[in-house]
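pinging the channel bc i need a second pair of eyes. not urgent but kinda urgent?? the chain im working w is below, pasted from the shared doc
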Amino acid sequence: MTTDLRLIQLRRVLFVKTIVTIFIWGLPALIGPLSVLAILGIPIPEDPIYLRLFGGACTAWGVAYWFAYKDPLRNVAIVKAGLVDNALPTLVIVVLGVTVQVSSVFILISGLLTGLFFVLFLLLMPRVERSVTG
């Protein structure tokens, strides 16, 4: 695959990752009504502060992915960090799924998505970074 085609594909993946991260994971966990989250099968702790903090962190990641989408070569560090951002949740969901069973379909689908994003980021990672001045 040519470098230009890989960059186009990476931008598409980053666009989708931005949308999913902000609107599926971030904002609902940050400001969504707990009753709606419970309908999705998301476990709601007695004190939802960690859920709200998770939503804030996801929304911030979504903004970072938007910058990477705008210029993947200049912001390749975000894509590299995105490998960890996607690998860790996937690993946690797999381990929990094997050891204690994950009952939420939403969580299982999220694990599949983060695993897919991890693989796509790995395959489409730019080989060259553009400097901030270049």
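so The chain is about 75% helix and 0% strand. and The CA atoms of residues 10 and 124 lie 6 Å apart. — does that match what u expected or am i reading it wrong
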